[in-house]
Design brief:
The protein is mostly beta strands and 121 residues long. It is 0% helix and 45% strand.
Length: 121
């Protein structure tokens, strides 16, 4: 099953795609829970920069892919494996391979959130 791993300092969070497949069809796969990112303590991943919104973004599963959905004032910067940096503002982007996420400010060396998709089949 594919899963997405987020790493921040000493914290590691995984978001799997869970499958309740009894018929051998991809359509039977259930959506996994989402991961919330932001300044509030009730987020799955808490970031305390001044540019981070309380409920900044969410990572969710759609059709067996991982998507970051920005819900913030300042946007989210995402660098994917091809090294392209995209500013996502009140929109979504598919996360693939490995890369970096920066909440509310441009990517810098050592951006706090590293992601990587792992396929286990």
């Amino acid at each position: 099953m594919p899963r997405l791993v987020l790493e921040v300092a000493d914290t590691k969070i995984e978001l799997p795609i869970r499958c309740e497949d009894t018929q051998g069809t991809e359509d039977a796969c259930a959506q996994s829970p989402s991961l919330c990112l932001g300044k509030n303590d009730d987020n799955d991943l808490v970031a305390q920069s001044a540019q981070t919104s309380r409920q900044h973004a969410v990572i969710e599963v759609r059709h067996n892919d991982f998507y970051l959905v920005d819900r913030s004032t300042n946007g989210t910067y995402v660098q994917t494996e091809d090294e392209q940096v995209t500013l996502v503002h009140r929109n979504s982007i598919r996360l693939w391979g490995a890369g970096w996420i920066s909440l509310g400010q441009p990517l810098a060396v050592g951006s706090p959130i590293h992601f990587r998709q792992i396929d286990r089949r």
